[in-house]
Amino acid sequence: MAVPTASPKALEKLTPLVDEIYCANLRSGIYFAVADAYQNWYDLSRDEVLRLLKEAGYLGHKN
Question: What is the dihedral of CA 9, 10, 15, 16, to 10 degrees?
């Protein structure tokens, strides 16, 4: 499994479920926000998310 950032406790819980874990940014402390690991973080609007999903082919197709 690969994740951009995580806490040691989260990785500890996941370790038995995967063969290997790659974590680029290990965060310490009781609480942290994923956004704290990035220099440029912003929330996407609902419309932006829907547009990106549609462009990636995840919306607009019947299975």
Answer: 90
